[in-house]
Specification:
The protein is α/β, with parallel strands linked by helices. It folds into 5 domains: 101 residues, no CATH class; 78 residues, no CATH class; 109 residues, Nucleic acid-binding proteins (OB fold (Dihydrolipoamide Acetyltransferase, E2P), Beta Barrel); 159 residues, Rossmann fold (3-Layer(aba) Sandwich); 157 residues, 3-Layer(aba) Sandwich (Rossmann fold), CATH 3.40.50. Helices cover 38% and strands 15% of the residues. The chain contains 28 helices and 21 strands. The strands form 4 sheets. A 7-stranded parallel beta sheet has the order 11-12-10-13-14-9-15, sandwiched between helices. A 6-stranded parallel beta sheet has the order 16-21-20-17-19-18, sandwiched between helices.
């Protein structure tokens, strides 16, 4: 038998057993009609059978018990006529309600039908009394509840862990569908937050409606008609609704069942957008509900949830409302009252109710702020704990006398800037402490971070400690290797042979010699890529780890390198300016030093946004630079052309540029699909001048220093983030010659793009980073290591006020109870453990 029919039979038999009191389903049989109808259609029950059921039960709540009995008898009979093979029991006679007055309904069946009986298991753990209203009192009342109010829950209800099949009407098939939304328990439903809200709270009379507004009206059905259009492929349900001030024609498409519900004289509530047809105002496909129901879909701010195939908005909204109504009031608040009062926050249980079904926009704002604060507060406590744990580790101090420092700085071919001197002071103090350094050194492209790294390596070597420098690419590793050979042997006691390069292309015999040198301590400095992480590599005394472009490495990779020493000092470097909001959160466990001053003599790079029709002008400009003996980069967003993406691609354009544009010059090609040795050979050829123009994808973004390159042309510039464009631009202007960055978007419309205008007008990386964070989110800054932070439910890493507020409260609490050992912090401690389960370990 069809499962929807089996379910219906069970519901109706229970209703008869109860004496037709319309309580076989909490809220009445009418509450199960919509979900039952959806299941019936989904399981292929004939349309005529569905219409018979809906027609018999649509007015069921308004009937007397005797009339309900007659209605169900008639429904049995009609079903038997349509389905001769269906075996239906006799309907019991009307029973006295007194026999049933002690029976208890299932609480979670408000959304779908549920048999009546003594609650067991999860149902027994859910309160059966009417839940408190979600209407918010004034904040003072919230923070100081009256003595006769319910006491604060001390434990989360066990029902949060109950499977979705606990809810009547959700079987294994429906649960599998909801799994696509990562919904498996009642707790998941409680935290399945709306993605947006429709404002249907504006109640108006029909005579005051205006075209284009979203409103709610209350009226009475005057007439309902069904019309077939498009040669029978579509059915239009047209209803006329009046409210005494006027009449409005309303239309639904291909929902014939609505005509059976909207019988003339029925009062209903409609919400939707006012449209217009032939000069008359109309509504198309509005949400509607019976007037006597509690409005979930109309006459309020309506939550709109993420959906998947097979799940409708109305159905999911009712399911979530049932769970929120019953479980949200029982959620204990993990935040101490001192934090609640200081931060002026709503109680968590009220915030949960208001985030789903807000009374008004102000209550929604307060609820969103509370939940966002929760996440940011827990995040801040975590990074503070991480920082504290680092401070408690011990490592031998690495000190050096001033004469050696003077010897080093005087050997440099240039003077350090004030910003570099300040950065060196920070790292020198860190190394002299009895615990390991844990510092982030950030500075724009060309600001001189590598020199600071060299000084730190020199201090480590003076204390017989080894240093490992890890970079994301072989190109960058080679570049740093050459820099260290130029800087260290002349100014320190480190001989050139004690500085080695270890990358994937290093011959095996050399790799083995380097492994032995690291193990016995003869090699003091090793620079390399992921090859440094290989198991055979051990260090005699690893005292310093330097990681460049650190956002390119995952937590596990850095941990592997750290574990090769006894609490080694850590210096991570990035050329991507970090906005203040991110510095306070994902980098909150690090001490941060910013080099915000460029070395003297650097000529600012001139940046211009060109229209696509000006491309030949850009090519001619590049030819002029080539004639002067310089080189140029041309960046494309794609490796190869795609039918789906209308953007120029490196491989396709490379051949055309060589044959038609830069005739007489040598053009090279670089992209991520090339083998590592091919990429390295291409870059080496470009560095040595064998190529005049290098066509590349974003693989060029990190670690290229070609002083002779004076032009950076970026095609499809609108497809890159500001941080990425700024990185590209920093690949030129590395020498003594005037350099240029030319941006060509995909279309003329994109030429006015606010982001492109911003990069044209400023070379300030921090200003661009803030813009990029606000416009594109934190993805460009997080890389592989903190991608989880981009998945915060409600908090935004761009909300600096919230971050500073949460940081302030977290610091205050952490000073008082860093381990959350006090009894009043027990719930918070458990919530911290849950929050950090997926991000366990270091986050930086």
């Amino acid at each position: 038998m069809n499962p929807a029919l089996i379910k219906l039979t069970k519901y109706l038999r229970l209703e008869a057993d109860r004496g037709y009191d319309n309580r076989a389903v909490v809220g009445g049989l009418q509450h199960m009609l919509d979900p039952w109808e959806a299941e019936a259609r989904g399981t292929g029950l004939p349309e005529k059978i569905i219409e018979i059921v809906l027609a018999h039960l649509k007015d069921y709540p308004h009937l007397t018990p005797h009339s309900r009995q007659e209605t169900l008898k008639d429904l049995w009979s009609s079903l038997g006529t349509e389905l001769p093979n269906l075996s239906l029991p006799e309907t019991p006679e009307l029973k006295e309600k007194a026999e049933l007055k002690d029976r208890t309904p299932s609480i979670l069946a408000a959304t779908e039908a549920q048999p009546i009986g003594e609650p067991t298991g999860i149902e027994a753990q859910i309160p059966l009394s009417r839940p408190p209203s979600t209407h918010l009192p004034q904040p003072e009342t919230i923070r100081e509840p009256k003595s006769d109010q319910l006491t604060e829950p001390e434990e989360p209800p066990a029902a949060l862990e109950a499977p979705l099949t606990t809810i009547a009407g959700i079987g294994p098939k429906s649960a599998k569908t909801l799994h696509k939304l990562n919904l498996e328990t009642l707790g998941d439903l409680l935290w399945h937050l709306p993605r947006r809200y429709d404002d249907y709270s504006q109640l108006k009379t029909i005579n005051r409606l205006w075209y284009g507004e979203e409103v709610t009206i209350i009226g009475t059905v005057e007439d309902v008609q069904i019309r077939t259009v498009r040669s029978g492929r579509m059915k239009l349900i047209e209803a006329v609704i009046s409210d005494g001030t006027g009449a409005l024609r309303v239309t639904w498409f291909n929902q014939a069942w609505i005509a059976d519900r909207l019988h003339p004289g029925r009062p209903i509530v409609l919400s939707g957008k006012v449209d217009q047809y032939l000069g008359r105002l109309t509504m198309n496909n509005p949400e509607w509900e019976a007037l006597e129901r509690k409005q979930l879909h109309t006459n309020r701010i309506v939550p709109v949830y993420p959906l998947t195939s097979g799940v409708t908005s109305k159905w999911l909204r009712r399911v979530i409302h049932s769970v929120v109504t019953r479980l949200a009031p029982r959620i204990p608040d993990p935040l101490p009252k001192s934090v609640m009062e200081s931060a002026d926050l709503l109680p968590l249980n009220i915030a949960l109710q208001q985030i789903h079904f807000p009374d008004d926009w102000e209550h929604l704002r307060l609820a969103q702020h509370r939940l966002a604060f929760n996440e940011m507060f827990l995040l801040q406590l975590g990074v503070l704990r991480q920082k504290s744990e680092w401070g408690q580790l011990s490592s031998p101090p690495l000190t050096i006398d001033d004469t050696r420092i003077t010897r080093f700085t005087e050997s440099l071919p240039y003077q350090l800037t004030n910003s570099q001197l300040s950065a060196f002071k920070d790292v020198r103090e860190d190394l002299a402490a009895p615990h390991p350094m844990n510092r982030l050194l950030q500075g724009d492209v060309g600001s001189g971070k590598t020199v600071i790294a060299a000084t730190v390596i020199g201090i480590a070597a003076a204390n017989n400690a080894q240093s490992a420098v890890m970079t994301p690419t072989s190109i960058l590793a080679e570049q740093h290797y050459q820099t260290m050979l130029d800087l260290l042997p002349p100014a320190t006691d480190i001989p050139a042979e004690a500085i080695q390069l270890l990358i994937g292309a290093t011959p095996e015999a050399e790799k083995q010699a380097i492994r032995e040198g690291l193990a016995n301590g003869q090699i003091q400095v090793v620079l390399g890529t992921h090859a440094l992480l290989e198991d055979p590599i051990t260090f005699a005394n690893l005292g310093l780890v330097v990681i460049d472009e650190q956002h390119r490495f995952g937590v596990e990779q850095r941990a592997v390198l750290r574990n090769k020493g006894e609490n080694p000092n850590l210096l991570v470097m990035t050329a991507t300016p970090i906005p203040r909001s991110l510095a306070l959160t994902i980098y909150g466990d690090l001490d941060i030093t910013v080099i915000d001053e460029m070395p003297p003599g650097r000529i600012p790079i001139e940046t211009r946004v060109l229209l696509p029709i000006e491309r030949s002008r850009a090519h001619n400009f590049i030819i002029g630079q080539l004639e002067n003996g310089h080189q140029a980069f041309i960046i494309y967003p794609l490796v190869e052309g795609s039918e789906k993406v209308q953007a120029k691609a490196a491989v396709d354009e490379y051949q055309r540029l060589q044959e038609n544009i830069f005739v007489g010059y040598k053009v090279g090609l670089l992209h991520g699909r090339m083998r590592p040795d091919e990429k390295e050979n291409t870059m080496a050829s470009f560095r040595s001048g064998e190529y005049d123009v290098l066509v590349s994808t974003s693989v060029l973004e990190v670690g290229v220093d070609i002083p002779n390159a004076t032009v950076m042309l970026i095609e499809g510039a609108n497809r890159f983030g500001l941080a990425q464009l700024h990185q590209f631009r920093g690949r030129v202007g590395r020498g003594e010659h005037k350099s240029y960055c030319l941006l060509i978007p995909d279309s003329e419309d994109e030429a006015d793009n606010q982001r492109l205008s911003a990069i044209e007008s400023t070379n300030d990386g921090f200003e661009l980073a803030e813009l990029d964070l606000n416009q594109r989110g934190p993805g460009d800054f997080l890389g592989t290591r903190q991608s989880g932070f981009a998945e915060l439910r409600t908090a935004r890493l761009t909300d600096i006020r919230l971050i500073e507020k949460a940081r302030r409260e977290a610091v205050h609490l952490f000073k008082a109870d860093p381990m959350l050992a006090q009894p009043e912090h027990a719930l918070l401690s458990r919530e911290m453990a849950r929050f950090w389960t997926t991000a366990k370990g270091e986050i930086s």
